[in-house]
Specification:
Radius of gyration: 14 Å
Number of domains: 1
Shape: elongated
Number of strands: 0
Largest sheet: none
Number of helices: 5
Helix content: 55-70%
Distance between the termini: 14 Å
Length: 83
């Protein structure tokens, strides 16, 4: 769906494909959204957000590497995309 929408607006896929979140990143974001819906909270609160992401990493070990990459500050030189 993300690719389709961007193509509809005439964007060149060679320019935006590297900006799209990975499948694992999408799964983590959906799990985080489910947690927010179930428990409330403020997504803009960095400490609270990191606590939710840590819980996801503990509950879903195969996603832990993705979670840790998503928790890295953008200034650390990480190449992980942020949706």
């Amino acid at each position: 769906m993300l690719v389709h929408e961007r193509l509809r607006f005439g964007e060149d896929p060679w320019e935006f494909m590297s900006e799209l979140p990975t499948t694992d990143e999408l799964v983590v974001l959906l799990l985080r959204t489910d947690w927010i819906d179930a428990h409330g909270g403020n997504i803009r609160d960095r400490d609270w957000n990191n606590d939710v992401l840590r819980r996801i990493a503990l509950e879903y070990p195969p996603l832990s590497t993705t979670v840790w990459q998503m928790m890295r500050p953008a200034s650390s030189g990480s190449t992980t995309r942020r949706p």
